[in-house]
Amino acid sequence: MCLSNCAIVIMGASGDLTRRKLMPALNQLYRKGKIDDSNVVIGCGRTNFADQSFRERFDVDESFAKLLFYHQHIQGLKHFIQSRCNKLSRIIVFLSQPPSAYGPTTRELVEEGLSKETSIVIEKPFGYDLQSAREINRVIGSGFSEKQIFRIDHYLAKEAVQNLMVFRFANSVFFPVWNSHYIESIQINALESEGVVERGAYFDRSGTIRDMVQNHLLQLLSLLTMEAPVTLDADDIRRQKINLLRSITVTGCNRFQYRGYREENAVARDSMTETFTELSLQINNFRWAGIPIFIRTGKALHRRGTEIGLRFRQLPGILYNETGAVKPNQIIFKIQPSEGIIIDLSAKTPGAKGLISGTHMNFCYRDSFADAVPEAYQLLLYDVLKGDHTLFVSAEETECAWSLIQDHLDKGELGMYDKGSKPPGKFDVDWIDFDAYAGICG
Ligand code: BG6
């Protein structure tokens, strides 16, 4: 499907996100023939640029660069768009700005007459806490309906995340065992090896719970554990995610900071911001009640990797398991850096009578699908252009997620860990050895 006659407006177009993510993604969509020459991309902001100097800021194809224009300030934007796009059918406004600018920008856009036929795209953070998230939703919602708003959570665009629903609802072998009768625990492990790098100013006001748990990781958990939606429509899927989020309680939360974090650029010297968190949760519904769920995530750790692990219940201590040596089955979803699904099984060791070994059954994306996994931003921008909300988060989802973690923000002791170390932790948990799967599908 090729999209025509759209105006894609980027507010705050001189920023880093536009150069690093948005323009390369749009350029790729143009190359692939998904957007044609009838579209325009208009940068907008306080800085003044001539069209030509705006174009020169980006490393894009010459033919695509011709679709780029720049307009200073919002006043006069509507007329500018109409003068550059003959048969205008839709306007998409990407707010590439800090959340504090959403309110004023939205009001100005509405005053400028950009409300009908317009979609608004925003990126996390969707607020700083429950109250500020509600305020953002209220302000944007006063000018635009929920159908016009696209909230990006780039984890939802990851191939291996989208596959969670397919794995669960398109494979009859897994569907019956997806509950507390068979599954003993659920663990989510999202580790980064880099520290805060150049993002100290943002991160120090945020911390891992706001930065990763409130959005990306609760979305992963929702897709993994929600009930089946009635249809694959965005509204039906979102409804199930909301039901799930409303059933969760956080039963424990530990915070940690890496040594040396306070010396990072733009970080307060007495900062109490966490760079690593572990949470324990419960889902209070008939499917999952009583199952312990653990999430841990942080920066400056020994490796980068996001995995989800489901551990199945132990067999009774009879037959091959008399000594309790048979390991429980596990399913590991490798989300990144490589994508795959691994099932841990027990098998007879060849030759040796009665000896059982642990082995894996692997599905690696790299081996099964020749096409490279598409970049998240391309996918998301294309969906915005098509008006498909499936991979975007609703106002209610963001508020439910904030409610869940609100009481744990900036609270509790702060443990310390060394840069490059294995994840710290205080829970008495038998964590799945996720490192053992790092080489599989890599
Ligand atoms: C962003 C966070 O949303 O996600 C960053 O703000 C984090 O702090 C990043 O590093 C992780 O994304 P990914 O796709 O690299 O796992």
Write a brief structural summary.
The chain has 442 residues and is an alpha/beta fold. It has 13 helices and 15 strands. The chain has helices at residues 16-31, 51-55, 62-65, 77-84, 102-111, 130-143, 159-169, 200-204, 208-225, 234-247, 365-368, 376-386, 395-405, and strands at residues 6-11, 40-45, 68-72, 90-95, 118-123, 149-152, 183-191, 248-258, 276-283, 293-298, 305-312, 330-336, 340-348, 356-364, 414-417.
Describe the overall structure:
With 442 residues, the protein is of the alpha/beta class. It has 2 domains: 118 residues, NAD(P)-binding Rossmann-like Domain (Rossmann fold, 3-Layer(aba) Sandwich); 259 residues, Dihydrodipicolinate Reductase, domain 2. The chain is 30% helix and 24% strand. It is built from 13 helices and 15 strands. The strands form 2 sheets. A 9-stranded mixed beta sheet has the order 14-13-12-11-7-10-9-8-15. Helix 6 packs antiparallel against helix 13 and helix 9 packs across helix 10. The protein starts with 5 loop residues before the first strand and ends in a 25-residue tail after the last strand. The site of 6-O-phosphono-beta-D-glucopyranose has 2 residues, from loops.
CATH architecture of the largest domain: 2-Layer Sandwich
> Which percent range describes the beta-strand content?
15-25%
Number of domains: 2
Bound small molecules, by name, code or SMILES, are: 6-O-phosphono-beta-D-glucopyranose
Helix content: 25-40%
Q: Examine the coordinates and then state which fold CATH places here, giving the name of the CATH topology of the largest domain.
A: Dihydrodipicolinate Reductase, domain 2
CATH homologous superfamily designation of the largest domain = Dihydrodipicolinate Reductase, domain 2
